[in-house]
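Support request from a user on the community tier.

User writes: "When I paste my structure tokens into the form, the page sometimes reloads and wipes my input. The last time it worked, I copied everything first. Here is what I submitted, just in case something in the input itself triggers the reload:"
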């Protein structure tokens, strides 16, 4: 069976558990923070790389849509539209190059909306060919096709899965809504321009205009709600401008317009006001985009500092915890080891020495044998040490008290035995005197029986004295023959008449100091033989020469001892 680990090892294991957990938690926080700031930084870098080109691409597509609506005949023969298509293609090429660079850098992180935008741009040439060939007719169908294409590109500013994850910021949401109002105003512009050129607004044209107007006003309300201070100032300037008021007035009038006739506005007035409003929106959007990028960079730097400070403070806390835990653990281990040494000393040295001294009858001071332990620095350990000291003191006091009690009881028994022994000696002396005076056989026989009974009583009294750890008063100074010692033992047995002692011609002399003890021992053996053997049998006692002296044999019918 393996021994348990020492106190130091077990305590260190206990202290290491929270430290390891703390270090693991700090490592997880550090990894998560660094990974998060790296992801945010990567997202912001991508947004800065693609945000402005996408905004310019939307503007070019909006102009191309407007010129497609203005084309007096075939879109293929309209020169301003052809020139605008070249500018749009150039901007599409820039966006494709940026997207290709991003995909090559990390293709797994490319959002689905970016891929959808690239596929939609791939269909731009097909859209133009259909418009030039007359497949898309009337003009409202061409406008709707451009609307769908621009909507796909515009999702990059509003979708959470797109590269512009900056939409999670409220101010940028306001900027996205403000920018999207330009798209719906462009749709209004394209529909109204087409109806003005045709001098007739059909119910379908009016429905498309009202849908674009409703979406613009809804997004304009969202922009007002989420706009930051800078964008709010641009918003207020736009709302207070005369072109915007005239555009709103035209929208309100067309909302209740009875379809079938020419719109109640000239192409020149509407185009001037609409393009003026669109210019202000695009200018404010570009300024807000630049400001948001600068603010994002500032926030990123601040986040780096905060995360660095948190990680440094966490590392410092871990190191301080390690130092304090080591110091506390070492102090606690030393105190527990001192307590362990005290317990081992009590069990292996003090108590055995105390028992030995009490056995010898020495006087013992409990305060000396159980001194108080040194106070511990830890309150819990100090209470344990005090409890152990109390237990040790109680154990020592109990041992001393029990020894004193046994000594007192033994002394009482010894006094009673010695008094009894003195009376028995006087009784034996009196019986011996009476035996010499009496001549009647019957009386003399009774006196002999009484003498024998008194002798046995003396033996039992001497046994009590021996059990009291003292020596009987009956002592021999000179050596005594072993045969006489055995005969004296036989005389102290009740059925001594059944005992036969064989002659011992070569029996040695027994030292006088041992005579009393040998008499008692042999008497007990002989009495045991007489008690556990049939009453009509005899008990034989013989002395046999052995290698190192003489061996006594006590034999009865039931066995030998």
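"...and here is what came back when it finally went through:"
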């Amino acid at each position: 069976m393996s021994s348990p680990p020492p106190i130091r090892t077990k305590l260190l294991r206990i202290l290491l558990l929270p430290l390891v957990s703390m270090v693991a938690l700090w490592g997880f926080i550090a990894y998560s923070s660094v990974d998060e700031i790296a992801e945010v930084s990567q997202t912001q870098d991508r947004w800065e790389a693609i945000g402005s080109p996408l905004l310019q691409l939307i503007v070019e597509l909006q102009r191309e849509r407007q010129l497609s609506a203005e084309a007096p005949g075939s879109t293929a023969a309209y020169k301003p539209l052809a020139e605008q298509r070249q500018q749009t293609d150039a901007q599409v090429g820039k966006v494709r190059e940026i997207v290709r660079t991003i995909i090559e850098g990390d293709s797994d992180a490319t959002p689905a909306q970016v891929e959808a935008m690239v596929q939609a741009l791939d269909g731009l040439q097909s859209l133009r060919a259909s418009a030039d060939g007359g497949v898309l007719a009337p003009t409202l169908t061409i406008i709707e096709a451009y609307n769908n294409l621009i909507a796909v590109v515009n999702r990059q500013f509003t979708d959470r899965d797109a590269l512009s994850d900056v939409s999670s910021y409220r101010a940028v949401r306001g900027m996205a809504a403000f920018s999207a109002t330009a798209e719906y105003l462009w749709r209004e512009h394209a529909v109204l321009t087409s109806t003005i050129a045709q001098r007739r607004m059909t119910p379908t044209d009016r429905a498309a205009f009202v849908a674009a107007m409703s979406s613009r006003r809804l997004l304009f309300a969202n922009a007002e709600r989420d706009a930051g201070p800078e964008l709010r100032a641009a918003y207020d300037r736009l709302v207070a401008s005369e072109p915007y008021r005239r555009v709103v007035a035209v929208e309100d009038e067309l909302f209740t317009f009875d379809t079938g006739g020419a719109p109640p506005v000239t192409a020149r007035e509407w185009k001037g006001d609409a393009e003026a409003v669109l210019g202000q929106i695009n200018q404010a959007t570009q300024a807000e985009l630049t400001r948001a990028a600068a603010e994002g960079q500032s926030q990123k730097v601040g986040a780096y500092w905060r995360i660095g400070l948190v990680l440094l403070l966490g590392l410092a806390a871990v190191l301080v915890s390690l130092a304090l835990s080591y110091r506390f653990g070492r102090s606690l281990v030393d105190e527990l080891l001192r307590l362990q040494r005290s317990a081992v000393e009590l069990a292996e040295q003090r108590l055995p020495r105390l028992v030995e001294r009490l056995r010898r009858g020495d006087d013992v001071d409990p305060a000396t044998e159980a001194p108080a332990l040194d106070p511990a620095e830890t309150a819990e350990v100090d209470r344990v040490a005090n409890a152990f000291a109390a237990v040790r003191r109680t154990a020592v006091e109990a041992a001393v008290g029990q020894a004193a009690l046994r000594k007192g009881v033994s002394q009482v028994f010894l006094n009673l035995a010695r008094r009894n022994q003195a009376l028995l000696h006087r009784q034996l002396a009196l019986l011996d005197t009476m035996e010499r005076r009496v001549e009647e056989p019957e009386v003399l026989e009774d006196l002999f029986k009484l003498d024998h009974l008194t002798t046995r009583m003396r033996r039992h009294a001497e046994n009590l004295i021996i059990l009291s750890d003292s020596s009987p008063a009956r002592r021999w100074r000179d050596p005594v023959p072993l045969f006489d010692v055995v005969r004296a033992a036989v005389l102290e047995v009740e059925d001594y008449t059944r005992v036969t002692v064989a002659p011992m011609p070569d029996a040695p002399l027994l030292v006088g100091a041992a005579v009393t003890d040998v008499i008692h021992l042999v008497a007990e053996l002989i009495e045991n033989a007489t008690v556990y053997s049939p009453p009509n049998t005899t008990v034989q006692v013989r002395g046999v020469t052995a290698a190192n002296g003489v061996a006594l044999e006590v034999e009865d019918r039931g066995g030998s001892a």
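Agent notes: The reload is a front-end session timeout and is unrelated to the input. The first helix runs from residue 7 to 70. The two ends are 45 Å apart (CA to CA). Escalated to web team.
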